[in-house]
Every structure is written in C-alpha cells, then in structure tokens.
Write a structure and sequence with these properties.
The chain has 188 residues and is mainly alpha-helical. The chain has a single domain, classed as dinb family like domain (Four Helix Bundle (Hemerythrin (Met), subunit A)), CATH 1.20.120.450. The chain is built from 7 helices and 2 strands; from the N terminus they run H-H-H-H-H-H-E-E-H. The longest helix is centred in the C-terminal third of the chain and has 23 residues, at 157-179. It is globular, with a radius of gyration of 17 Å.
C-alpha cells in the first residue's frame, strides 16, 4: 500500500462486513425490516443507507482514478477542508451520541427491504474495498473533494475515505442497537 492509513480503512470495512454477516446473516425478513419506532431505521435501512451513501462517492472516485478530476475554486481553499473533514469525521464516530438527520441524497430505501440487502451489502463492501485499493495508487490524498450532499462541504480524499469507514461503524452500532432492543422480534 502506498498510503498507510488505507490499510486501516480497508481493515475496518472488512471487519464491518464480517460483523454484519455474523450478527445479521441469519435474521428473518421481519427482523431485517423491524423498526424500534416510527422515525427510526431498521437494520436493513441502516445497511441500505451505507450502500446509498458510499455509492454517491463513486463518480468522484472514478474521476480521480482516471486522472480526470478537477477541483473547483472552492475546493482549492486552504484550511477549510481540514477543519470540515475533522469536524465531520468526529460527528460521525460511533461514540458521538448526538443524532443527526441525514441529507435526502443519503436516505435509505423505504421499507420493506428484501433479504437481498444482506448479500448486496457484502458485494458492496467488496466494491468499496476495490475503490480504496485503486485510490491507494493515487499520489495526492490531500486533494480536496466535495460531499455529494453539498458542494460547500469539502474535505480531503484521505478524510473522505476515513469518514466512510467511521460512518459504517456508526451505523453498524445503530443496527446492533436495533437488534438488542427489548421489542425486537424473535427469530423463527
């Protein structure tokens, strides 16, 4: 690997894949779609949200890999990307207890989700790791990109990849909390 942090980020993604398979691989469709409350997500929606969010970055990743990425004037601003990157990563950590509403572009699919979401998630994780591996060959991970949610939210490619892994940890914790809920339906 050219960038040492990539090893850690890929390991995080692999660990999350394993834990999803281990903890949710045998749950029923009813359990997959069960929500603790009307404004809370099911396990399936947590996983779908991660896939939806990650995929919004794929066009940027592809342009960077192909050498076709051109930063905007805003993305060339000094200091701001570093501040925003650290702030968003910290707010996305699993231990950060404050809930936040997601941007509509990142919303999960409405229910009910099929059992395919678990297989789709595993395939998606492999796809994400493949992007990270290809991006590892790119020299400048300090290059700045915009969030797909808003061109005004900017951070480095390194912070972006770190953010995606941290974000997955946060929603894995959320899905595990759903599974541990007292009212969670019993398996058959």
């Amino acid at each position: 690997m050219n960038h040492s942090y990539i090893n850690e980020v890929i390991k995080d993604i692999q660990d999350i894949s394993y834990q999803v398979e281990h903890d949710f691989g045998k749950i029923s469709i009813e359990q997959l779609n069960w929500k603790p409350g009307p404004y809370q997500w099911s396990i399936g929606q947590c996983l779908d949200h991660l896939m939806t969010t990650n995929r919004t970055y794929y066009p940027v990743f592809q342009n960077i890999i192909k050498g076709q990425y051109r930063p905007s004037l805003w993305q060339r601003m000094p200091v701001i990307p570093g501040i925003l990157g650290k702030m968003i990563i910290n707010a996305s950590r699993p231990e950060y207890e404050k809930k936040s509403k997601t941007f509509s572009i990142f919303e999960p699919a409405p229910e009910p989700l099929t059992g395919r979401v678990l297989q789709d998630f595993q395939s998606h994780q492999s796809e994400l790791i493949d992007f990270f591996t290809q991006l590892d060959q790119i020299e400048n991970h300090a290059r700045v990109i915009s969030s797909p949610a808003s061109r005004w939210i900017i951070y480095s490619l390194k912070d972006c990849l770190t953010l995606l892994a941290v974000h997955e940890k946060r929603h894995l914790k959320q899905a595990l909390t759903v599974r541990r809920s007292v009212s969670f339906p019993a398996g058959k």
